[in-house]
Design brief:
The chain has 313 residues and is of the alpha/beta class. The chain contains 10 helices and 12 strands. The structure holds guanosine-5'-diphosphate-beta-L-fucopyranose. Guanosine-5'-diphosphate-beta-L-fucopyranose binds next to helix 3, helix 6 and strand 7.
Length: 313
């Protein structure tokens, strides 16, 4: 990517988009095109078409999406499938019409079958049934992968798809109903410590395993792949290591310095038992993550625990 390239980061206020902007700015890119959702509604086909026609970006990072944790995915099922399909279709089609040099689409590890063999290889896509709690979101993300593949196959577009594992880091969401497990537990343990509460509630059984990647590592990987990878097949981005929810809770408990108990709430869903990425393809391409999980969580906790994020309802 030439330093003068015009780069559109869709979703620049989100956790992933903002990490991409920090990375691109640190690398010296100054012609970033950024729009808030109030300025550009990506679900509006005409608005997106007009925006691309006016701006003519050279590169697109498609990080705009409706996202959230297990409960919000399961509750707002229509919003998750509708908004994500609309955003992907509008942006990818406009990127084709306006001859964007290259587009990188961000998916999710939940596109793989619920009971696929572990670790998850890229070729396991569409080989089995999906996890029901996030099926609408996963279907939309699979459609995004297939859009990139189809525009590459029919029109020769250089559109690539990357599948990040569960992410955490700067600009995460801490709303307890809608957030992912890692930020939710940071907030719950911190609040329990301040309130001297006897126990912290952990959703589900604690046995599911998840893999966590710091969003700054993800931004590094996306930047690397935008310049080095140009194939139809999706590519996993993760650490290749996972941890049970119970062990994650114990790690966060230790980092926060809370001394009470863990209480598991079996009325809440577990979701997929395990979704560990096979990252051998990414490693073979020459990229590995750098931020260790405990170190990453400590940095996030230091950044946020005295901010209003932990007071938001
Ligand atoms: O992070 P999380 O919401 O997403 O939940 P998923 C991971 C696991 O942590 C589940 C448990 O087994 C939860 O039951 N958990 C324990 C908690 N305590 C909590 C808590 O306080 N809050 C939350 N949120 N979970 C989402 C998908 O799945 O992950 C999306 O729904 C997307 O589609 C995203 O792929 C990365 O990993 O289960």
């Amino acid at each position: 990517m030439n330093k003068n390239a015009k780069i559109y980061v869709a979703g620049h206020r989100g956790m992933v988009g903002s990490a991409l902007v920090r990375k691109l700015q640190a690398e010296g890119y100054q012609r970033l095109i950024l729009r808030t959702s109030a300025e550009l509604d990506l679900t509006n086909q005409q608005a997106v078409a007009d925006f691309f026609a006016d701006e003519q970006p050279d590169y697109v990072f498609l990080a705009a999406a409706k996202v959230g944790g297990i409960q919000t995915n399961n509750t707002y099922r229509a919003d998750f499938i509708y908004q994500n399909l609309m955003i992907e279709t509008n942006v990818i089609h406009s990127a084709y019409i306006n001859q964007v040099t290259k587009l990188l689409f961000l998916g999710s590890s939940c596109i793989y079958p619920k009971l696929a063999p572990q670790p998850l290889k890229e070729e396991y896509l569409l080989t089995g049934l999906l996890e029901p709690t996030n099926e609408p979101y996963a279907i939309a993300k699979i459609a995004g992968i297939k859009l990139c593949e189809a525009y590459r196959s029919q029109y020769g577009c250089h559109f690539i798809s990357v599948m990040p594992t569960n992410l955490y880091g700067t600009n995460d969401h801490y709303d307890l109903n809608n957030s992912h497990v890692l930020p939710a537990l940071l907030r719950k343990f911190h609040t329990a410590k301040i309130d001297n509460a006897p126990a912290v509630e952990i959703w589900g059984s604690g046995t599911p395993k998840r893999e966590f990647l710091h969003v700054d590592d993800l931004a590094e990987a996306c930047f690397y792949l935008m310049q080095t990878y140009d194939e139809a097949e999706l590519i996993n981005i993760g650490t290749g290591e996972d941890i049970s929810i119970k062990d994650l809770a114990l790690l966060i408990k230790d980092i926060v310095g809370y001394s009470g108990e863990l209480r598991f709430d079996a009325t809440k869903p577990d979701g997929t038992p395990r979704k560990l990425m096979d990252v051998s393809k990414l490693h073979a391409l020459g990229w590995q993550h750098k931020i260790d999980l405990a170190e990453g969580i400590r940095a996030v906790y230091d950044d946020v625990h005295q901010t209003s994020l932990f007071n938001a309802s």
